[in-house]
């Protein structure tokens, strides 16, 4: 059974009524439902693994724009299962780092290695296939497409059907399309917006759009999820909810790299923090160390509240 669909895109399955079902579930049923969703969302991952070996290596990365050095021999690693924060003042080079990792920019020198293999000159879509997904500071959704369609587009990165297979609508194409819709619905459920699956992205509230971006990035089945200021424009309650979602994503077996200016959020959710200033790494450590680090306080954090008389 499906709900009405105006366009040619995927139809919202009967689970579109899932929001109503969820509202009537007991706590035990909700827990069971969440566990089922988590399994669909993380098909090939070990759920709730310990922080493990290095997943991504940023090795002496330098990025120059004309005379400006946006990244200056920056090196750090990201371990599997970790939530790593990347912080620093405006213009410190955080987004440039994301862009150099995801194929938007070609580094001037240095390299990025995923699972020990250099990403080299791979194009953006191939880097996505290798397992790095990202969201953007400024939301980039297909506004005229439904929330479900936006996430189905993300699953395309994993499809094996050839263009010809899709044109002749081969059985494999149908199977992949059905699986994509099921997984996309599970992802919308996972990020908490399944009740709006059939709505156009442009009509969703701002907080839903941010969550939709995350669902779409997760649809590519990334090994590493990079979030660029996901809490921008959020009120304190939305920030708390986002922290819960980021933890849930990690607990589902993903590794997360987070750029964020909100210190309460960064300190509350990350396992480790790397600090950039003027394109250079000035600190790398646990949130408690970073909070006390004199160079970080001078460059970015300012005087801790406790020290203000
Ligand atoms: N495509 C580009 N061309 C020229 N300069 C650039 C380009 N992209 C970034 N820069 C410059 O590189 C420096 C680092 O910018 P970047 O956006 O990485 O900083 P950021 O730490 O992400 O800052 P914010 O917190 O404000 O987003 C800035 O001086 C910026 O103006």
Keyword list:
309 residues; alpha/beta; Rossmann fold; 2 domains; 6-stranded mixed β-sheet; 4-stranded antiparallel β-sheet; 12 helices; 39% helix; globular; disordered N terminus; disordered C terminus; binds adenosine-5'-triphosphate; nucleotide-binding
Describe the structure.
Keywords: ATP-binding, Nucleotide-binding, Transport. One of its GO terms (molecular function) is L-isoleucine transmembrane transporter activity. This is ABC transporter ATP-binding protein. Residues 56-303 form the ABC transporter domain. The protein is of the alpha/beta class and 309 residues long. It has helices at residues 18-23, 27-41, 94-101, 124-130, 147-155, 163-167, 171-190, 206-219, 236-251, 263-269, 287-292, 294-301; strands at 54-65, 68-79, 83-87, 109-114, 117-118, 132-134, 224-228, 255-259, 272-277, 280-285. It is globular. Strands 6-7-8-3-9-10 form a 6-stranded mixed sheet, sandwiched between helices. Residues 65, 68, 70, 88, 90-96 line the site of adenosine-5'-triphosphate.
């Amino acid at each position: 059974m499906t709900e009405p669909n105006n366009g040619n895109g995927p139809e919202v399955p009967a689970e579109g009524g899932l929001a109503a079902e969820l509202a009537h579930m007991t706590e035990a049923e909700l827990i069971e439902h969440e566990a089922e969703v988590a399994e669909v969302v993380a098909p090939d991952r070990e759920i709730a693994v310990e922080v493990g070996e290095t997943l991504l290596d940023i090795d002496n990365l330098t990025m120059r724009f004309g005379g400006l050095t946006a990244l200056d021999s920056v090196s750090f690693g990201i371990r599997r299962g970790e939530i790593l924060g990347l912080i620093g003042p405006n213009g410190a080079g955080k987004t440039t780092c994301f862009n150099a990792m995801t194929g938007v920019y070609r580094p001037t020198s240095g390299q990025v290695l995923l699972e020990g293999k250099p990403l080299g000159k791979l194009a953006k879509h191939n880097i996505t296939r290798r397992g790095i997904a990202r969201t953007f500071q400024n939301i980039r959704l297909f506004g005229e497409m439904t929330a479900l369609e936006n996430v189905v587009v993300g699953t395309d990165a994993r499809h094996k059907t050839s263009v010809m297979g899709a044109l002749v609508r081969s059985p494999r194409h149908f199977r992949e399309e059905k699986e994509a819709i099921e997984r996309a619905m599970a992802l919308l459920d996972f990020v908490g917006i399944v009740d709006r699956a059939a709505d156009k992205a442009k009509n969703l509230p701002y907080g839903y759009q941010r969550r939709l971006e995350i669902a779409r990035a997760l649809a590519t089945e990334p090994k590493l999820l990079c979030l660029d200021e996901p809490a921008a424009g959020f009120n304190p309650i939305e920030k708390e909810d986002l922290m819960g979602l980021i933890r849930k994503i990690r607990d589902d077996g993903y590794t997360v790299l987070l750029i964020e200016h909100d210190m309460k959020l960064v300190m509350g959710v990350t396992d480790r923090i790397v600090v950039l200033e003027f394109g250079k790494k000035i600190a790398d450590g646990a949130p408690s160390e970073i909070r006390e680090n004199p160079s970080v306080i001078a460059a970015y954090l300012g005087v801790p509240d406790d020290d203000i008389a």
